[in-house]
């Protein structure tokens, strides 16, 4: 790929998830933007579990990059290397940059096209609908939200949730964990804590937990944390900017340690806060301001700073209820449900991307 033909600076954004998509969208008329992502679409992550029980949701939550990013280039291939002035992607292209944004929060193996992704949700829906019993492995936000979606839409299914830790939702307070546990068990979800499941040991729909307990289920969902999308950075110029957890070390301007023209946003950063999409959007806003400052020298060259977010978390429990942890209070039921669980912020996120809700 040749360098940009216009006089605009070239910004390459790696990762078309929450942070990267918002940076690309916000800067598209200001710079020559290239968005690098292995898939052709942005997906609203917090709507994915609803899409498994209501595939129509995916029509709104899976959005082709070209629908909101109309004035730039999408390169549909994972980035594999970074040099001082260019990024290489798996299909062989080399993309020069003036500024680089790294937003590869999490790597997940998903289909390349929107059509395939929507069909995948339809397949999950059919699988859940035809199962009598379902095993969910993992009691973090994904496992808890999936259990909530299934028991609310399909109350007759037998749902078992096995979690390795001593409490659900370990990223929030023990009080909030207990409320989630009580909510699920009151809806007849069998919650097994302190155990794991060895999937290699499954025979004829009988799963074994680490203590040898047998669980019969027609299907299972593995809801364990997705790996951080940074392993590919270990062979690049950014290898020394990674911390022990594989997160990129950034300063208060979100500039990557040791690289003045490289910014990181979202879950891949080492900012000490709960990793959340609304914070990735706040990072994107700071990144956009700072890239504009860097490109124009305006604002007297004064860069915007980012302060870590509060420990705020919202976990949906089906369509109407939810669990919220605010700085001083934890709430469960319809009030937090009203904030998130109805539309799961899909309309709001689409509007932020300049699309019809
Ligand atoms: C079930 C669930 C519910 C959630 N609920 C909420 C919620 O209610 N509110 C909230 O604020 N947050 C929520 N979150 C968290 C939120 O989704 C994440 O914090 C957010 O997605 C992080 O954004 P990101 O841009 O850092 O990374 P991601 O959104 O993970 O995007 C990373 C992107 O990078 C791409 N990528 C990876 N590797 C490469 C590579 N080598 N080259 C190019 N591209 C690459 C991926 O394809 C992906 O598009 C939830 C998460 C889950 C799983």
Characterization of this structure:
This protein has 357 residues and is α/β, with parallel strands linked by helices. It contains 10 helices and 19 strands. The protein has helices spanning 18-27, 48-53, 56-61, 65-68, 114-130, 141-153, 174-186, 277-296, 334-340, 346-352, and strands spanning 10-14, 32-37, 41-43, 62-64, 73-76, 79-82, 86-89, 94-96, 99-102, 133-137, 158-163, 190-193, 206-208, 214-216, 219-222, 262-264, 313-317, 321-325, 330-333. The strands form 6 sheets. A 5-stranded parallel β-sheet has the order 5-2-1-9-16, with helices on one face. A 4-stranded parallel β-sheet has the order 12-11-10-15, with helices on one face. A hairpin with a 3-residue loop joins β6 and β7. The model has no long low-confidence stretch (mean pLDDT 95). The structure holds flavin-adenine dinucleotide.
